Structures are given as C-alpha cells and as structure tokens.
Fold this sequence. Notes:
The protein is of the alpha/beta class. It has helices at 11-28, 49-58, 75-78, 128-138, 156-166, 212-221, and strands at residues 2-6, 33-37, 62-64, 85-86, 100-104, 110-117, 146-152, 172-176, 186-187, 193-195, 237-244, 251-259. A 6-stranded mixed beta sheet has the order 4-3-2-1-11-12.
Amino acid sequence: MRILLCGDLVGRVGREVVIREMPRLRRELALDLVVVNGENAAHGFGITDTICRELYEAGVDAITLGNHAWDKREILAYIAGDPRLVRPINYPPGTPGSGVWAGRLRDGRKVAVINAMARLFMDALDDPFAAVDAALKAHPLGDHAAIVVDFHGEATSEKMAMGHFCDGRASLVVGTHSHVPTADAHILPGGTAYLTDAGMCGDYDSVIGMKKEPAVARFVTKLPGDRLQPAEGEATLCAVFVETADATGLATRVAPLRLGGRLPPHWPG
Ligand SMILES: [Fe+2]
Ligand SMILES: [Fe+2]
C-alpha cells in the first residue's frame, strides 16, 4: 500500500497547492490512502464543511485535526456526520466527532487513521498514549491493511516517544503542528515508518505560515498587535510518503515529499 500524509494545510495557498497537486500525486505515486492535516485550512484557523468537501473531491481520503480543530465553531455540528474528519482522540469524553476513522479503500482493504494530541507545551488533555494504545488494540494491524497515526504536538521528544510506543503496531506515526518539516524520516526497528514532523503545506516566507511582519513584531515588542493572517506567497507542499507490505501492514519505505515554494524540492525516490 502507498500512503501520503500532508502536514498542516495553512490558509488558501496551503489548500490550493494540495488540491492542485493531488490528482497528479495520486497517479504518479500510485497512492492508495491520502490523509491531510486540516486544522489550519480555513484562513489559518480551523476548517469548514465546504473545505472538507473540496479536499475529498481532490482525492483526499481522510482529514486530521489538532488544537485548532474548533476555531470554526460550525464544524462542531458537522463533524459527527463526517467520519473521515478525525479530531484528536484524547479530548474529554463527550467531545463531538471521533479520534479514529476506520474505513475501507475502494478495493475493500480496511484502514484506520488515528489523530492524537501531545501534551508538552500544549493544552492539558487526557493521556494520548493510553488513548492511542486503546485505539491500536481496537484496530490491530493485520486485521487492517494500514494504520496511520497523526500525533499533533510541539515537542520532538514526545513525538519520538509516540513513534516507539506504536512501533510494530502502526504503518506510520507522523508528527504535525510545528509547521516545520524534520529530516528524520526512517523505519523504526519494529517496522513502523516515522517522521517527527511533516511540516506545513503553506508559504514558508512567513512565521509558521502567518504573515511575517506582524508575527515578528509580536516577539520584538511583546504587544498583542493585529490578529495574524496567513501568508499568501507560493506554498510548499510538505508530506510524508510511505510504502507498506500488504502481508504485515508495516513499512518498507518512507520518504519526505516537498513540492513548490521556497523549500528545496524532494520527490520520494
Ligand atoms: Fe497547525
Ligand atoms: Fe496545531
């Protein structure tokens, strides 16, 4: 199976690069499963039902979220009716939506996508390790052809720990949220593909996707300033590509994918 996960789509340019490139990526990489992190898709803050539909139409199979999940409040009413829109699993009981999408590809193979949120330098949520452990026990590899875990967090240490915690039980553990891609894509000893952060799909002439002048001014002056707006220059699409063995669901290949914008291009060779 061939899987692609795109890091946080930031604003219009982040959405547009993914929507524009996805048909070609699906074809040229022969992708079976495509996941995108959509927490910043709506002008940097949250996501809407219209954006979800546009992403699905472009060839996205599932959308994960994070700390910006509810910035567009209307999504709270929408999420229960869209099982492919996955919010962090370790929100308190009673939170709308689900932290797992367990579905089938067009060819019938079962897959599961899990979204969890880290806790270091983040909101205090329920234990993500216990929540992911329960989800992996409910959705074991083998019964599922592929399991993807998007672990949304700030600290590289916590994300690496989640990778090892899931090693051998997931096809891919990838970090999102930092909006900066890391260079450590590799297969863990137990066979799980791992990358600390996929980076964002957005304009890198920015401060993590937001217009740089007001973002820099906040650090320089320590005054609140205007609400941050997404940068609108050419976006880099940042993703991680994984190939798995169908017999085990474990990874045989993992590589970053970067296209367009300011970052050096990288095509999974
Ligand atoms: Fe984000
Ligand atoms: Fe985030």
